[in-house]
Amino acid sequence: MHDVVLIPGDGIGPEITSAMRRVVEATGVGINWNVQEAGAGVIDEYGTPLPDHVLDAVRATGVAIKGPITTPVGTGFRSVNVALRRAFDLYACVRPCVSQPGDGSRYENVDLVIVRENTEDLYAGIEYDRGSEGASRLAEVIAASGQGPVREDAAISIKPISEAGSRRIVTYAFEYARANGRKKVTAVHKANIMKATDGLFLRVAREVAAGYPDIEFNDKIVDATCMGLVMNPDDFDVLVLPNLYGDIVSDLCAGLVGGLGMAPGANIGEQGAIFEATHGSAPDIAGKDIANPTAEILSAAMMLDHLGEHEAAGRIRAAVRATLAAGEKVTGDVRRALTGTAEGCVGTQAFADAVIEHL
Ligand code: ATP
Fold this sequence. Notes:
Layout: E1 2-7, H1 13-26, E2 31-35, H2 43-46, H3 52-61, E3 63-66, H4 80-87, E4 92-98, E5 111-117, E6 127-128, H5 133-144, E7 156-157, H6 163-179, E8 184-189, H7 197-210, E9 216-221, H8 222-231, E10 238-241, H9 243-256, E11 266-269, E12 272-276, H10 294-306, H11 310-326, H12 332-339, H13 348-358
Parallel strand pairs: 1-2, 1-3, 3-12, 5-10, 8-9, 8-10
Antiparallel strand pairs: 4-5, 4-11, 6-7, 11-12
Helix pairs in contact: 1-10, 1-13, 6-7, 8-9, 10-11, 11-13
The protein binds adenosine-5'-triphosphate.
The site of adenosine-5'-triphosphate has 13 residues, from loops.
C-alpha cells in the first residue's frame, strides 16, 4: 500500500484527477489516497490558498499528485503550484514528450524529455513595481555600477541563476539520461545576451557534461532551439533549461505531441515528488466533462514508476496508447486535431473508461 496525497485543484482539476484516480485504481495497485484541497476555494476558510495541513500531508508522504490550481489574479497570493515546488525544494521538473499514434499532432516520432530548473530564474518572484522604493533604489545601484540607465517608470524583475542551482539541475539531467537509456543532453540558454546568468548556467553545464563521457552533450540558444524543435524534433533527446525557458519550451513540446492535454510532468527533489500535468486549470472548459485527462493519467504513470510500480505504469501507458490509436473514444481536443471537428468525441470520464478497458 502506498500513501499518496491527492490535490484535485480547481478548473478542470477535479475532473481529470478523478479520471486519473479511476485508471490507477483499475491497475490494482494499492494506494491510500489522502485527498487535500488547496487553491482559491480554501482562502475563505484558512486565509491562504496553501494551508499548513496540506504541506504537512505532503511532507509526511513525500509523494503527491495534483490537478492544476488557478493563480488568483490581484489577491496578493502567489502561485500555489510554484509555492508547493518551493516548499519542498522540488528543483527538477521532468516533462517527457512522446508521440502516440492518433495524438492528433503533425509529428510521428517525437521522443524527448524536458528537464526544467524549478526554483530560480525570473520565476524566483523577486519583483519591484513601477514607482516602488525598491525599483528606484535598484535603478540607483545599476546607474552607479555604470550600467543602465533604467527608466524611472520601469518595473524590475530579477533573474537569479546560481552555480549550485545550475549544477544540480544539469547533474539531474545527465543522471536521468543515464538511468533512462538516453543518448544526448542539450543545454538551452541565451548566454550570448545574458552573459552573467545564462553564461554561468552554460559554463556549469559544460563542466558537468565533462563528467559524463558516455552521454553526448551540446548547447543551443533558446530561440534556435524553438525553431529546431519545430523543424527537426528528432535532433533532440534530453533538454535541460533554466526555469522560464523550460516553461515556454515545455508548451511548445506539448504541441509536438498533440497539445497540452497530452503532456505529463513531475516535480522532483530530495524531499519528495509532486506529479502534475503541464497544463493549467483551463477555466474555459471546466466542469463540462470535455477536458482531456491523458496528461494527468500519464503523470500518474510517472508517479507509479517513482513508487517502483513499473509494471502498472507500463500498463497505463500502453492502455492510453491503445485508446488513442483506436481513435474511436477520444476527447474533443484530439478529435478536432484529427478531423477538424470535435463531432463524435467522448467526454473526460468516458475516455478514462476506454483506457480502463485497454488495461
Ligand atoms: P497556466 O498559466 O496556469 O499554465 P495557461 O494560461 O497556460 O495556464 P491552460 O489552463 O494550461 O492555460 O490551458 C490553455 C488552454 O488549453 C485552455 O484554455 C484549454 O482550452 C486548453 N487545454 C488545457 N488543458 C487541456 C486539457 N487537459 N484538455 C483539453 N484542453 C486543454
